[in-house]
Amino acid sequence: MLPLSAAAKVVEITLWCMAFQPHVDGFNYVIEEFESTHPNIKVILEPQPGQADMAAKMRSSLSAGKGAHMFTTPGTTIMEWALPGNLQPVSPGVVTTEQVKREQLPENYLQCHLKEQIWAIGIPDTAGDIGLAINVDHLKEVGLPFVNKFKDMNQLLSYAKKLSVYEDGKLVRAGLSFQEPNDPM
Length: 185
Hints:
- With 185 residues, the protein is α/β, with parallel strands linked by helices.
- It has three domains: 9-73, D-Maltodextrin-Binding Protein, domain 2 (3-Layer(aba) Sandwich); 76-126, no CATH class; 132-173, no CATH class.
- The chain has helices spanning 21-37, 51-63, 78-82, 97-103, 106-112, 136-141, 153-163; strands at 11-18, 41-48, 70-71, 113-114, 117-118, 165-167, 170-173.
- It contains seven helices and seven strands.
- The relative contact order is 0.11.
- The chain has a three-stranded parallel beta sheet. It has a two-stranded antiparallel sheet with strand order 4-5. A two-stranded antiparallel ribbon has the order 6-7.
């Protein structure tokens, strides 16, 4: 056994989440479980006042090279922060692109996938606010049939690519976009 002076230093990790009681309670439970198996890591939970406020705080923190080590955010902000290099991709040792495509909701893959890397993983929202809306006129324009359910992620992505519209090399209509009514964008 090591003498106390040689004991490992405790590492502190900051986690920001919304000050929404179900999120706070859930994270406190996960933190308790995590710390019970990782005694040299202390997770400090810092609930933030609201989704829009927290996203604004993350924007200013990340652009300054600071911020929480972990955070929750609307999925639509992930690429905003990944493209300029404010976030690092998740290690393939944690999760692979194929795992996310196979095991997560389509929005989790589409909002966090870039250059064959995954930039965020998380716990999906409840199914009540997830859904796809398709403009059937756009389907007709590109000769695609209406389907009630995509058979797999590859079919969904194929539709997205065919429905995308570019002008002068710039995307002017995305073939697929996940937006939730509670996203602050």
